[in-house]
């Protein structure tokens, strides 16, 4: 069975075709500058064949037609017929409170997604447009919506509620939703296999330009750091993370920002970028090693906030069996992992600096042999998680 995984943005469309027999990637590609002049499709097959098509894509429909054209290409394609695609898995940002798991897409699902578009105005319109386009281009292929929020739908009310009037929550659904759900779900399942215990208590740290932490018990999310939007929680590349709302109003008045401008300011101009002028952890690390104190401060702030969330989630779980790092920073920045894990022995997590520095790829255990808590570096694979969900639902 071959599953096509789609991750659409307002002007982009990333895709992977995955062979579910061995979970290998057959082909992957991206369409860029959709709706703009100078659109381009770039594709690479499992055996290294590359293709670039420069052709305007006025909408996601033209983008999907071009994706199929590339995959069916007689020279550099990987399919003989669209019928070889057993299902299409769409990554969708927001489920609201309407879906607790992935669903097969029909007209009612699309209607609900359109209703929830106001919860993710930057992402949802493009994702919905892509679903409609796919259904036009591939009308006989079953499609599945895999939401970025549903893994966190198991949080209890005491975790997801904000202390605002209940009738306001009830009317407008203002609450913590959490994001990066496909990654946290994938990691929790893979870590459960590694630990030989699918009911293990674990804290998962998905650290990248956007970052989040989740507390997982019995394979279910108990709490997560992102909130009503991805702005809440950790210090990130350009996002401030947790901040006093009164400080935002003070900042808004001082900088003469509209409410909308203030949200964009906190999303795009803060985080590591605001502290050091550099949003990328690699650049901050390079500058820190040269003696740049602002870069060092930015990294310390990132690590401190992660450490604080780990500690609070260990309290929520009543102990922890594993602390897991994933994402671009979680997998590749040994210094950040070191800063986070310093002085964590109190909770049974004994960190091995040598193993941490020597880790390069794959599954890595960076705890000492006598540590009660496993400390694991584990690469995420959100596309495979979406493909698995799609396979399971379309098979039924």
In brief:
The protein has helices at residues 60-71, 107-115, 124-137, 157-160, 166-172, 181-195, 245-255, 259-268, 271-276, 281-289, 293-317, 327-332, 334-341, 353-358, 382-395, and strands at 2-8, 12-19, 24-32, 40-45, 50-54, 85-92, 103-104, 143-147, 201-206, 212-217, 220-224, 322-326, 364-365, 374-377.
How would you describe this protein?
The protein has 396 residues and is an alpha/beta fold. It contains 15 helices and 14 strands. It has helices at 60-71, 107-115, 124-137, 157-160, 166-172, 181-195, 245-255, 259-268, 271-276, 281-289, 293-317, 327-332, 334-341, 353-358, 382-395; strands spanning 2-8, 12-19, 24-32, 40-45, 50-54, 85-92, 103-104, 143-147, 201-206, 212-217, 220-224, 322-326, 364-365, 374-377. An 8-stranded mixed β-sheet has the order 5-4-3-2-1-6-8-7, sandwiched between helices. Strand 4 and strand 5 (50-54) form a beta hairpin. Helix 6 crosses helix 15, helix 10 packs across helix 11 and helix 11 (293-317) packs across helix 13. The longest helix is centred in the last third of the chain and has 25 residues, at 293-317. It is globular, with a radius of gyration of 22 Å. The mean pLDDT is 96.
Individual helix count: 15
Strand order of the largest sheet: 5-4-3-2-1-6-8-7
Q: Provide the β-strand percentage band.
A: 15-25%
How many strand elements? 14
Sheet with the most strands?
A: 8 strands, mixed
What's the quaternary structure here? single chain
Q: Show unreliable segments.
A: none
- Distance from first to last alpha carbon: 13 Å
Mean pLDDT across the residues is 96
Helix proportion:
25-40%
Summarize the helix and strand pattern as letters.
EEEEEHEEHHEHHHEEEHHHHHEHHHEEH
